[in-house]
Amino acid sequence: MTIQWYPGHIAKAERQLKEQLKRVDVVLEVRDGRIPLATHHPQTPEWVGNKSRVLVINRMDLITPKMQQLWTSWFQEQGETPYWTNAQQGQGMREVAQAAQQAGVQMNQRRQNRGLQPRPVRAVVIGFPNVGKSALINRLLGRRVVDSARRPGVTRQLRWVRISDQIELLDAPGVIPAKLHNQENALKLAICDDIGEASYDNQRVASAFVDLLKQLSDMATGDRTPASSLEDRYHVDTTGITGESYLQVLAQTRYQGDGERAARQLLNDFRKGLLGAIALELPPS
After folding, report:
1. By the 8 A CB rule, do 251 and 259 touch?
2. Which one of 2, 212, 213, 231 has the fewest beta carbons within 10 angstroms of its own beta carbon?
3. Percentage above 90 pLDDT, the chain
């Protein structure tokens, strides 16, 4: 299975984004807390350049507090400060706004040193599709001003939004590499719904998802493992069978043999958090 997705509106948005970056003071890079490495665009350092950058890791509600702490420690070891958010519920917004404003203070100090008047900080929100960028902007503003939904491709054009007298934000469509060379990461994007559905086969992705949970369970400690979340919800044992076989059994026992329906239900249950808080990536050792 090869997963590739680079629709025309993303290619257009990326060209416009590169133009707008010239006007921007700070970059808010939003990632998915379940897959914070897979949702890092390799061109981000090039786009950020010498600008200030705020690392926002959204969907903190979909991983455990222990996993969040492990990732925080790992990022801090890399010299980065992650700002954890749940854009759906508004958690972490104050800290993100303060980080952006602090970058603005530094920017205006440099302007004052050159004899220029202060102005609002201009920030851009970038990230993969469906990681929660528009929801983040709506929460920062305190009302719905940009379209937001739990699916990729909702934002299709760039739009400036004034958050306050101190901050202007640019909402940009999700950007994704033109070529996904790392197919393990591409699979995780598909599982988390951070890439267009036209790029993958639901049954293959759902089968691979089960295999991934079994692999993560082998590395887990304690009684509660990612694979046990499947067993608790569907009452189908994962022991000794492949992800493909698990999906077939699930389809037979619950969905009258409909493998496509079983795959969609399995993936949607994970995406909505109904399988519990599960991180699909562990911090590199």
Report:
1. yes
2. 2
3. 64
CB 164 within 8 A of CB 123: no
Q: Please say if the pLDDT value at position 285 is more than 50.
A: yes
User: Which tokens in the block code for residue 173?
Assistant: 């469509």
- Which pLDDT tens digit goes with each residue over 94-149? 999 899 888 888 888 888 899 998 888 889 999 999 999 988 988 888 876 654 44
Cα 120 to Cα 217: distance, rounded to the nearest angstrom:
48
What three-state secondary structure class fits 75? helix
Residue 211 has, within 13 A of its CA and on its CB side, a CA count of 13
Dist CA 209 CA 191 (whole Å): 7
Number of Cβ atoms within 10 Å of the Cβ of 198: 8
- Which residue did the predictor score with more confidence, 223 or 98? 98
| Phi, psi dihedrals of residue 161, rounded to the nearest 5° | -130, 130
Closest to 132 (Cα-Cα) out of 15, 275, 8, 271 = 271
Helices 226-234, 202-219: crossing angle, 10 deg rounding: 120
Closest CA to 197 of 156, 151, 132: 151
Tokens of 187: 């699979």
Q: From residue 216, how far is each of 229, 278, 280, 283 by CA, in Å?
A: 12, 10, 8, 12
Supply angle C-alpha 13, 16, 20, rounded to 5.
130
Q: Output the CA–CA distances (angstroms, integers) from residue 81 to 72, 76, 118, 121, 251, in the order listed.
A: 8, 6, 27, 20, 43
Give the neighbor-by-neighbor strand order of the sheet with 82-84: 82-84, 52-58, 26-32, 121-127, 167-171, 159-162
Beta bridge pairs of residue 31: 57
**DSSP code of residue 116:** P
